Amino acid sequence: MDRKDNQTPQGESARILVEFLEVAITSIVFLKGIYPSGAFERRRYMNLVVHKARHPELNEYIHSAVNGLLPFIQKGMVERVAVIFFKDDKVPIERFVFKLNVNQSYGAKVEQAALEFSLRSFLIKLPVSEPMTKVLPCKCRWEITAYFRSLPQTSTSQDSEMWIPTDTKQWQQLPVIMPIRSMSSEPLGLQLYLEHASLSEPNP
Amino acid sequence: MSFETTRSGNSGSNSKRSFNSISSNPSNKTSSSGAKNTKNDKKKKTNQKTLGMAWGANSSSSSRSAFRNSPFSDFGSYMVLKNKKLHEQFDAEASSSSQSGSSSGKSIFHGVSIFVDGYTVPSSQELRGCMLKYGGRFENYFSRHRVTHIICSNLPDSKIKNLRSFSGGLPVVKPTWVQDSVAANKLLSWIPYQLDQLASEINNQPKLSAFFPLKNSRDSDDVAPNVGNHVISETENSSLKGGTLMVANYPEHCESTEQVDLCGPEFNDILHEYQTEMMLEVPACSVGSHCELKGAELCDISTLDGMNTGFEPKSSSCQASASVCSGSLDGHNSKESSSSRISLASNQPNSTLAEPNFVENYFKSSRLHFIGTWRNRYRKRFPSSSNAFRYKSSCLNAHADCFFVAVVIKNRPELQDKPVAVCHSDSPRGTAEISSANYPARDYGIKAGMFVKDAKARCPHLVIVPYDFGAYEKVADQFYDILHKHCNKVQAVSCDEAFLDVTDSRVEDPQRLASVIRKEISDNTGCTASAGIAGNMLMARLATKTAKPDGQCYIPPEKVDDYLCALPVRALPGIGHVLAEKLKKRQIDTCRELRIISKESLQKDFGMKTGDMLWNYSRGIDNRLRWSDSEVRATSPREESKSIGAEVNWGVRFRNTNDTQHFLTNLCKEVSLRLQGCGVQGRSFTLKIKKRLSDAGEPVKYMGHGDCENLSHSITIPMATDEVDVLQRITTQLFGHFQIDVKDIRGMGLQVSKLESTDNGKLVHQRNSILSWLVSTSTKARDQEKVTSLTKCGDIVGKLNTDGDRGQLCSNHVGPYVRSDAGSSAGGSGISQDVILPPLHDLDVGVIESLPPDVIAEINDMYGGKLTSLISKYKSRTFDMNMSTTSVDSAEGVTAEEKKSHPSRLAQSNKISLDNKYGDEGTSVQPCSAPVSENISVMPSSLSQVDCSVLQQLPEELREDILGFLPAHRRLESLLDASLNPSENQTGSMQAVSSNELWVGNPPLWVDKFKVSCCGIMNIFAEMYYRSGCTCRLSSILQRLLSEKHVPLDVSTDEWDDAFSCLCELVKQYAELKIQTDIEEIYICIRLLRRLTERSKMFGLVCDGILPHLQASFGENYGGTLHVSSVQD
């Protein structure tokens, strides 16, 4: 089934994207220093040094979360994937948002190399955008949240059952957006930006 | 092995190498040679400082003293002698092993001489063994002259760096090459087995040898089939041995056995002649070569079951000495009644135990096998028949009525109205399964799959007839001949069923066509057929069901609903016991009830696909292009099978491993034949075994497999094969993986997958080479290679010329190309074995267009469909070109007047021409209709030599191409020149900038507008567009603007308002364009505008001006606001 799906351009780009997201999310978590740096090991991905979680559960969380999205990304149902850092009160501090756009009408073959080359630039840009990010207070938590264009039908896949509605609160004001990287190619468009609470956000 | 060579091998710089290898390979030596070596090292201690010596010093040798006085004058002469001795030893061993070993004659490594360097897996001794066994040579000491391949798993850095001095230019190969070659039973190309450390360097520069098979391997190719044949005939002999032995027992028939053909019919006849006598002599013993006879093979034997056990222990002697068949078993030539046949039982049943040709016979008499292989036959018969097609309005389903029975009884009128069923055997035990029953029999409730005894219980006078595969084939062929005669769109489903697309048939009324076809079938074949006509395949099939037997039914579109509503769901194809049961639980019996349920809930309850199918079928909707269920895979003739195999699950009983081996041999033969029949070779082999469960007794069904557990093992080899002996070796190996008591085996199957078409290999090569010629860009290659490859290319062109279209293509297009572009080694990229597609834009569309359509389609597939779009693009482009009567300006240098005159002239006449000036070499004008890619060599070195106004008139893609070919550093200055040329003839008069299409076109609309604007800052913007490389990215334009410090950006007050509104509009529209996909770009633009505020306040104001709008659209699209405050520097 997987194999068959991957033969479609959407399946192919979704597969590449999911793999990339796994790496990128791990990079974000590493970047934010929420775990000690010893919890990560250096790996090579797309000929770049990236970091991979050593702790199996952390690794598994990221892996299963993004891979669970694969069928939905493929169908273009996922609009955004956010990595949200929040305090105990569930109020987000910082959100890294991946905005996805899988071209559903793209029919030609996906040039994997070209796509990966574009995605690579995200991983390069990510560490250098660290100054834009906020310093997290201690005792922070984080989660991966996916925003769907429409709610998936419950029975379509077991993977969807792994997803639960998030109880993280929203900001009351519109957040401030800081773009980190954008790419738009035929099969796949992807943007990564940072969301911070607006200055006028009431401080609890 | 002359003195000279050895000497040189040990002298000078070479000596170190050879000593290294000695020391690193202590295991290479036999004990005696080791001793000698030790001795020698000792002796030469003073002048030879080597590692080998140190090793030698530590090892004790009893024979040392004996050698002390050895008469070697120097080291060289010693080595000569030693090598000679080693060779002699090797030869002796080789000859003795080939005499004793069964695998003699397979000298796959003929001409190969390996030298093993360092530690390898398998060890050098094992490799030596391989070489011994398969006709290769093994060198203990490296010599450039004797060694052909160096085998090693790893190399130290120093050797990698000085590879040539280490290897002497010989291939350095991993040991798996030897193993795989043995496994594939032929010498494989060593290229893929190159040492990884080296491969990376060498892959970049593929060798010709990869493209043209090695001489060695070709030689061995020649050898291999011979060997194969040899083995086949050998095995055939042995498999028949049983048979010949039997006859040999009767001396008077000896002469006749000599005339016996290897494949049995005549043999059988002979046996038949004497059958009566024999039955008298050995009444209880008979062996089933009768199985050769079609139809009656799988006779049940029950009466003598008891005797079986008694005979079993001495069955081996039975096989040899006793019994020739009781041949009259075959029901089809004897008109004996079934009861009389019972007496003709044998103690050696039709199992693998007794029958040498069991496998062959098994498949000869298998109905499923017949159906399975029918497709291949059909394909060959009607190769042109189109594949799947969608039935637009009218579909006719023709189905022969109970085909398997009808064919058998057509010549037996006495059976016409009696209940008849087809079955392998008609024994009183009745455990054979009925495979087909005619309508009178069906009235008794007899169905396919029923045991004979159950059927007889329902209908005591049921007549059981055996198969007649010859007749089936004949009738099926007639059936399809008739169908193809009446309709050219026939979609075959099975040997007795087909769909016809009668939408645009000659005969107006499909009903009349159906009756004509049916009548013809009935007249020609003597069997009846039914037909169903409806709008799609689903309905046509349902209609046929209604029409049966011997009738036809037409369901017009308006009656589909009525028909379906009354139809029980069970009647729909794809709904079997389980699904029907599930539906019944939900109180759904007919399609009417099914229709009430929504698609979503159906999908929820039954899964996506099934739900979808139920919903569609209940409405008579059939979206399939073809039947997708596995039962009718045969439908689309072009669909290639994924695997080919043979499995025997009936009558499999073994006594010992020899039986199994024999059985596997036959199975391999069968599979090999099937592979060859389909014209494919496979790489992956799976051996499946049915193992009797420990608690399972003898199955109810006679000789059936009963309760079994299924085991399987598979293996993948690097070279696809269909050769029997390779298959045999692989299966033996696979069988070795099973730890299993052969007595427990109840079924075996061999399946081959990862199929490659036998022709495909060649095809790929051809494709590869053609593609490599289509590549216009050249890869640098060494001169030598270039020359050889070009000559080789020429050869191939010549070769291809002989085979039709493709050849023509080459001579017409490729040939000239190769010549004109002789600087590039065209063969270069085609050499590597993988098909590496050249980038799409490198393809020469002109050449591609002239290819025959089928080749284009092929290439298009390889590019995932992008090629067609490229071609169509190209076509539209050339259409433009053709409109222009290309003007050729051959003047030396383009004067200013000419420059000016061009735009106007072009604007008027819509002519497009490109002046390509060649610095001093004079001016040459390339007609644009020539593919751009060919122009690389004639491109000017700088765009300044190109008339920019002409350039601007060119279609977008063409211009991009040209710009792309220009050296980057020259682009800007030339474009600057171009843009500073105010062209009055530009029609773009200043319009209201508020139109929403400022960024449309290439160059975008605003460029022209800004260029002709009277406002300085806007002119600069337009200029920057060209300077920044004609990108459509505002950020790069702004960036450019920022870096050009000298450009004055002051805006006079009278222009202010105009410029402000224009720029605002420009940025605003740009933001709108990018808001969805690229907020990074917007962000950068805003920041750049901020930074430009330093130079002119205008930009700050523009920025502030658009920000509210921008934030609004950010809020709309992203639910946030863009962060702008902190970057205000």
Largest sheet of chain B: 5 strands, mixed
Q: Into which percentage range does the β-strand content of chain A fall?
A: 25-35%
Average predicted local confidence, pLDDT of chain A:
82
* Number of extended strands of chain B: 19
Rg over alpha carbons of chain B: 41 Å
The number of distinct helices of chain A, counting runs of at least 4 residues, comes to: 4
- The strand line-up of the biggest sheet of chain B is 9-10-5-11-12
Helix content of chain A: 25-40%
Under CATH, the topology of chain A can be stated as: Cell Cycle, Spindle Assembly Checkpoint Protein, Chain A
Annotated CATH homologous superfamily of chain A: HORMA domain
Name the helix and strand elements of chain A from N-terminus to C-terminus, one letter apiece: HHEEHEEHEEE
Question: What does this protein structure show overall?
Answer:
The complex is a heterodimer of chains A (204) and B (1129). With 204 residues, chain A is of the alpha+beta class. Chain A has helices at residues 2-6, 9-31, 56-74, 112-128, and strands at 40-45, 48-53, 78-86, 92-102, 141-148, 176-184, 188-196. Chain A has one domain: Cell Cycle, Spindle Assembly Checkpoint Protein, Chain A, CATH 3.30.900.10. In chain A, 31% of the residues lie in helices and 28% in strands. In chain A, the strands form two sheets. Chain A has a five-stranded antiparallel β-sheet. In chain A, a hairpin with a 3-residue loop joins strand 6 (176-184) and strand 7 (188-196). Chain B contains 51 helices and 19 strands. In chain B, helix 27 links the parallel strand 11 (529-534) and strand 12. Residues 1-67, 201-350, 384-391, 625-639, 760-836, 878-945 and 967-994 of chain B have low confidence and may be disordered. Chain B: One of its GO terms (molecular function) is nucleotidyltransferase activity. Chain B: It comes from Abeliophyllum distichum.
